[in-house]
Amino acid sequence: METARRSDVVVFLGPTLPASRALEILDAQYLPPAGFGDVYRLIGGDVRTVVLVDGVFHGRAPVWHREILDAMESGIRVYGAASMGALRAAELCAYGMIGVGTAYRWYASGAIDGDDEVALLYAGAEHGYRPLSEPLVNVRFRLEKAVSAGILEPGEAASLSAAMKSMPFWQRTREALSEATRAIDEPRRARLDALLLDPALDLKRRDAIEALESAALHLGAPDSVAGARAAHAAFMAGPLYARSYHDHQRLMKRAFPRARGERLEGRALVDRLLSSPGRRRALSWSLGARFFALAWARERGVVVPADEIAALEAVIHARAAIPSRTTWLRANGLTEAEQRDLLARHLVWTWLLTQPPERFGIPSLPAPGDEGPWPPEPDIEALRPLCDRSGLLCALPYVAAWCRLAGAAPGPKAAQALTDRWRDALRAVDASLREPLFQAIWALEKGPVHFGYTTWSLSAELLAALQITGSVAALAASWEESTA
Fold first, then answer.
1. pLDDT, average across residues 179-207
2. Quick one: which of 432, 438, 417 has its CA closest to 368?
3. How far is CA 81 from CA 37, 136, 158, 389, 468, in A?
């Protein structure tokens, strides 16, 4: 007798991942690749979560953008990854669809375009949706690994990608790929063939698993009537940064009340705050540290204990000096929903800074001396809490942990340059702890965009941080045209 599956979660899945493997990750109703009308049919029923992996591209109309938007408007949480899901998520992330995985990030960043990147030929349901051709994103991913492994030169990988791109998607078979690699000399070709056939490098499969795990994490969060708990769970399961150009512009165009009834646009506010190189560097480090710490927490599934959330929320509200909620929201240019989302992120960050890193199995790091080239303290009072040195020092172990998790480390020249600049400040630091310190400092100097988080923006993160702490209202109200 077949086990009953939960009726509030639906996954559209076909050739990307066997349903048997998917069921090990997420209890859900599994439906065939989505086409036009399939998401519409879920609205108004029990479904509260949809994971869109596979969808039809040819022979039937594909799933519409409008039906996904309507589903989200009705309260359904929609994830997208790997295939049609990655494409639709990149197109709709600005409206709340949650994109997951490398294929999604490639689409969202513009590194790839066109539905043929993820399309493939596959057998019908009666044959288990067996793939009959190779998706181009899988080929690109494997060729990137071949370059990293020293098997191919970048130019050779680009030529092979272009050769496969020139074929109709249904002709991109393993045989065609093997033919395209015929010009590679034999010692390297044997290694390349093994890599191209390695099932562990199936990008679409990896992305689908990541999406199912993200949905499972969200569904597994304990229920609570507290709004802060729900917002925290949503943050932990949702994308860390998915701001589109439209989102960024909408935030920068937000207007804040000034004295004498005038209003100050967000763009003007942050541009002036960031006009000083010293301020920009201090804010870049502090907000970058916040990003890397939260990214590490998300990857590790770190969750703030439910019994601590209400107390933390009260502390944050007290620091933000919220007398009248409605008035405070209006003064800081926030809607109720925006305040909940920003509070969830701020809550995790605030809690992490109070925890000993050893609680999560990572070592504490000693504080470098004041002789180091630290960013200067901002000359504007409202910015000093954001750039507090003690908070930055508390974040360094988490930044270093993110570097280890991501495999990010400075090259020999960059490492030597760091050693030269920070030699005096690290003289008293044990040699075994200098490497993680260097990694953390290097990551802060580079910033999130360097590591592929192209939607991260210092301007947007600064404005959001000022909003959730209530500082933007005070800054706008007292702003003078000469402030710089």
1. 84
2. 438
3. 19, 15, 24, 39, 31
Per-residue pLDDT tens over the stretch 402-412: 999 888 888 88
Strands (E), 244-349: 255-257, 263-265
Neighbouring residues of 408: CB distance < 8 A, sequence distance ≥ 6: 402, 439, 443, 451
* Beta-strand runs (E) in 232-380: 255-257, 263-265
427: burial class by Cβ within 10 Å (0-12, 13-18, 19+)? exposed
Give the model confidence (pLDDT) of 302-337 as tens digits: 888 877 777 777 776 676 666 667 777 778 877 777
Work out whether the CA dihedral 334, 340, 345, 347 comes out positive or negative: positive
Contact 408, 443 (CB under 8 A): yes
Which residue's structure tokens are 């033919």?
A: 179
Q: Looking at the DSSP assignment, which residues form a beta bridge with residue 34? A: 55
pTM of the model: 0.53
Which of 79-88, 248-257, 302-311 is predicted with the least confidence, judged by mean pLDDT? 248-257
CA distance 283 to 82: 35
Q: Dump the DSSP string for 161-226.
A: HHHHHTS-GGG--HHHHHHHTTTS-HHHHHHHHHHHT-GGG-HHHHHHHHHHHHHHHHHHSPP-S-
Which residue type is seen at 198? D
Per-residue b or e along 352-364, where b marks 16 or more CB atoms closer than 10 Å to that residue's CB: bbeeebeeeebee
